[in-house]
Design goal:
It is a single chain. With 456 residues, the protein is α/β, with parallel strands linked by helices. The protein starts with a helix and ends in a 6-residue tail after the last helix. It folds into three domains: 1-128, NAD(P)-binding Rossmann-like Domain (Rossmann fold, 3-Layer(aba) Sandwich); 147-287, 3-Layer(aba) Sandwich (Rossmann fold), CATH 3.40.50; 289-450, Succinyl-CoA synthetase domains (Rossmann fold), CATH 3.40.50. Helix 10 (276-284) packs across helix 16 (434-450) and helix 13 (353-365) packs parallel to helix 14 (388-400). Strands 9-8-11-10-12-13-14 form a seven-stranded mixed β-sheet, sandwiched between helices. Strands 15, 16, 17, 18, 19 and 20 form a six-stranded parallel β-sheet that branches. It has 16 helices and 20 strands. It has helices spanning 4-7, 24-32, 74-87, 104-119, 159-172, 190-197, 216-226, 241-251, 258-268, 276-284, 303-315, 325-334, 353-365, 388-400, 417-425, 434-450, and strands at residues 11-15, 38-42, 48-49, 52-53, 67-70, 91-94, 123-125, 131-134, 139-142, 149-156, 176-181, 205-210, 232-236, 271-273, 295-300, 319-320, 345-346, 371-377, 406-411, 430-431. The radius of gyration is 25 Å and the shape is elongated.
């Protein structure tokens, strides 16, 4: 089903828009004032909201409204949804909480909201959610800050956790195409959103934070279709008995057994993340092409990070490539005598950008290598620039251009920032921990394997 009214609405009404900076309706409307389309504040008391003419009801707005963002007290939500239906609103995002997550009475009230909406052909996101963002359309229908633009669509069942991840990714330079806080999923759920995103060219990958799924069979059916087109990465909360109880009380979800979820994800081709960092690492990997095998080459200017990355890669079920003797001989011809020219290739701390270029080029050309991980503890001595090692890797990639994926693990805190920005701008996902770059490598291999693309 198409959700253009959610992500590219022609008209948006913010019902509960406010002039009070302490209210959520203030932040939602402030964010939406930047949207390129038409946005209308609805406020029963004030004639203007943040300098814009306000309407007492959505029914008073003279123009067509595709999307309503509802930020009113709970007692007014039912009447508000009825008015939205009469107005012909196509979709509503209900930020207001106090429904299914509170118990049986709340679930009953939630069902009533859905019944009203469906009677008018309207669909609902939420309630008990943060809202919806489409960075490509400059639309932020939430009360949180704008995510950085990127190509990962992120659907979160927890609003607060989702918001926290948005703030985390801004700091780390990770971008989203869409952020969708689904809350209690009274109506629109993971399956429908995934179905839509599968054909959305703005998204390379879909990341999910899941507490519970109401229709498991339907989720599997849709996920099987979607994962044939693009990767889906799931972080499932509530794996333990106590965690499952907490998840149930949080969004009123059916948490269920972790073993059942694990089997469902594997059956449907969904990649399983164990942590937030794991989920983000995997999702970001798909700016790179898919590998034809699971043999990884590692190049580094520091032995420790190389060994740790080798361990992390091995733990993910990948293996280090056995380099051809010709590759080893050519590496030995220009690297210092104390360099390690087997895999991992340790060029030692004196390695310059030219060494990174020549090494990366040889490793990418080696027929025994399916994927390259480039590591750099960015040096600050001997006149080296912060970006020369990254420049060497990028030059090698462009010259060889044989479709082998390249991932990077650059560490040195703020000293690494310019190098990481350069790599990311050239499509090379860059990580700060060996476990994260190994997760990214695993995601590429597993997705390629599920698609039947591995040659070994």
């Amino acid at each position: 089903m198409g959700f253009e009214y959610l992500f590219h609405p022609k008209g948006i009404a913010v019902i509960g828009a406010s002039n009070d900076p302490l209210k959520l309706g203030y932040e939602v409307f402030k964010n939406l004032k930047k949207y390129d389309g038409k946005v209308y504040p609805v406020n029963v008391k004030d004639e203007t909201v943040q300098g814009v003419k306000a309407y007492r009801s959505v029914l008073d707005i003279p123009d067509e409204i595709d999307l309503a963002v509802v930020v009113v007290p709970k007692r007014f939500v039912k009447g508000t949804i009825e008015d939205c239906g009469k107005k012909g609103v196509k979709g509503a995002v209900i930020i207001t909480a106090g429904f299914g997550e509170t118990g049986e009475e709340g679930k009953k009230e939630e069902r009533e909201l859905v019944e009203i909406a469906h009677r008018y052909g309207m669909r609902l996101i939420g309630p008990n959610c943060v809202g919806v963002v489409n960075t490509k359309a400059n639309m932020n229908a939430t009360f949180i800050t704008d995510p950085k633009k990127g190509d990962v669509a992120f659907i979160s069942q927890s609003g607060a956790l989702g918001a926290g991840i948005v703030y985390k990714t801004i700091k780390e330079g990770i971008g989203f195409s869409k952020f969708i806080s689904v809350g209690n999923m009274a109506d629109i759920d993971f399956a429908e959103l995934m179905d839509y995103l599968a054909d959305d060219d703005d998204d390379r990958a879909i990341a999910l934070y899941i507490e519970g799924i109401k229709d498991g069979r339907r989720f599997i059916e849709v996920a099987r279709r979607v994962t044939k087109k693009k990767p889906v990465i799931a972080l499932k909360a509530g794996r333990s008995e106590s965690g499952a109880r907490a998840a149930s009380s949080h969004t009123g979800s059916l948490a269920g057994s972790w073993k059942i979820y694990e089997a469902a994800f594997k059956q449907s081709g969904v990649l399983i993340a164990d942590t937030i960092d794991d989920m983000l690492s995997m999702a970001r990997a798909f700016t790179q092409p898919l590998p034809k095998g699971r043999r990884v080459a590692i190049m580094t200017n520091a032995g420790g990070p190389g060994v740790l990355t080798a361990d992390a890669v091995d733990a993910k079920g990948l293996r280090l490539a056995n380099l051809e003797e010709k590759t080893v001989e050519e590496l030995r011809s220009f690297l210092p005598p104390m360099a390690a020219v087997k895999n991992p290739v340790d060029m030692i701390a004196s390695a310059r950008g030219e060494d990174y270029y020549r090494t990366a080029k040889l490793l990418l050309q080696d027929p025994n290598v399916d994927m390259l991980i480039s590591i750099c503890v960015v040096p600050t001595f001997a006149g080296m620039t912060p970006t020369e090692h990254a420049e060497g890797v990028i030059k090698a990639m462009k010259e060889v251009n044989n479709g082998k994926p390249v991932l990077a693990f650059f560490m040195a805190g703020y000293v690494s920032e310019k190098a990481k920005e350069l790599l990311e701008s050239n499509g090379v996902p860059t990580y700060e921990r060996p476990e994260d770059v190994a997760s990214a490598a695993y995601a590429l291999v597993k997705f390629a394997e599920d698609k039947g693309l591995l040659e070994e």
